[in-house]
Specification:
The protein has a seven-stranded antiparallel beta sheet, with no helix packed on it. The protein has a seven-stranded antiparallel beta sheet with strand order 3-4-5-12-7-10-13, with no helix packed on it. The chain has a four-stranded antiparallel beta sheet with strand order 6-11-8-9, with no helix packed on it. It contains one helix and 27 strands. The chain has one domain: Jelly Rolls (Sandwich). It has 322 residues and is mainly beta. Residues 294-322 are annotated as: Disordered. InterPro entries: Pirin, Pirin_C_dom, Pirin_N_dom, RmlC-like_jellyroll, RmlC_Cupin_sf. GO terms for molecular function: metal ion binding.
């Protein structure tokens, strides 16, 4: 997905200043933003109080939305640099096309992983014939300096590993958990896992204590370490946890995100991740000039997302927290 706010706020992220040195239970306030013409999403990262969880730098959660009789998701070509997009559906289907020539429709339980690296453009749309409900999450992973200029790539993994135990079914999107390892390529130590909880489930999930973690209640509501987490909200868990106790009285879904604290300072503005404000401004100029990001087939000339104006003040580091 694209950050389609007309005047997106610049964010300087990374560094260790805002990483909790111990376990935490901080409810992160999200905000509702409009994506495309009508679709609304809940933006959980970056948000007031926290900008990153490991290398996870952006989290949008949407649905369940009734898209019967509508076009559903309609995000026309837009650019990315210096990051990976991780697309995860609970309900519905999305048609992905990009400037590499990828043309894939994916659904629930499938991983769509796009590595922007040096630069890529893509579109995301509901197919013409699509299911009635649409629900899922769009996430961005910041690439470390050694990988941020890598060649762009796209991978679709229809079968993902996982495990079931004590009323929870875990599907590993990225990284490893409980002996299951995702086929998705990661460039820094991280984890992303969908946890489907049965009614009455009460289970402990193993964690890497050196990671910081957060959970998103993507469906239903759950209790995490004694704290209620309602649909569409995110709970930051800090570091130092070896296990995580989760329970639910009704069928629910949690998205567990974590990773080694991201040490580098990065600048994230609109759909770009760079290291300096001037570099990000250069990405914008190249997109507007039709350079660097290629062309997505299937769209007429000029059918692309225009870049918003750069903010009037220089981008300045402000750390991981706000």
């Amino acid at each position: 997905m694209s950050d389609l706010e007309p005047r997106p706020e610049p964010h300087v992220l990374g560094g260790l200043g805002g990483v909790a040195a111990r376990p935490a239970l901080d409810l992160l306030p999200g905000k509702t933003v409009t994506l495309g013409e009508k679709m609304q999403v809940r933006r959980l990262l970056p948000t007031l109080g926290r900008r990153m969880v490991g290398a996870w730098a952006f989290v949008d959660h949407y649905g369940p939305d009734d898209v019967a009789g509508t076009d559903g998701m309609q995000v026309i070509p837009h650019p990315h640099t210096g990051l990976q997009t991780v697309s995860w559906l609970i309900e519905g289907r999305v048609h992905h096309r990009d400037s590499l020539g990828s043309d894939v429709s994916f659904g629930p339980g499938e991983l769509a992983l796009m590595t922007a690296g040096h630069g890529i453009s893509h579109s995301e749309q509901s197919p013409v014939a699509h299911p009635r409900l649409l629900q899922g999450a769009q996430l961005w992973v910041a690439l470390p300096d050694a990988a941020r200029d890598t060649a762009p790539a796209f991978a679709h993994h229809a079968d993902l590993p996982g495990f079931s135990s004590d009323g929870v079914t875990a599907t590993v999107l990225m990284g490893s958990l409980g002996g299951a390892t995702s086929p998705g390529t990661a460039y820094s130590p991280l984890v992303g896992v969908d946890l489907a909880l049965d009614a009455g489930a009460d289970v402990e999930i193993p964690l890497e204590p050196g990671f910081e973690h957060a959970v998103l209640a993507s469906s239903g509501s759950s209790v995490v370490e004694g704290a209620p987490v309602e649909h569409g909200s995110m709970l930051y868990l800090g570091t130092g946890r070896r296990t995580l106790r989760v329970s639910a009285t009704a069928p629910s879904r949690l998205l567990l995100l974590g990773g080694e604290p991201f040490k580098e300072q990065i600048v994230m503005w609109w759909n770009f991740v760079g290291r300096e404000g001037e570099e990000v401004a250069g990405f914008r100029e190249q997109w507007e000039a039709g350079e660097r990001f290629g062309h997505v087939e299937g769209f007429e000339d000029g059918e692309r997302t225009p870049a918003p104006p750069m903010p009037p003040v220089p981008l300045k580091p402000r750390g991981r927290e706000r």
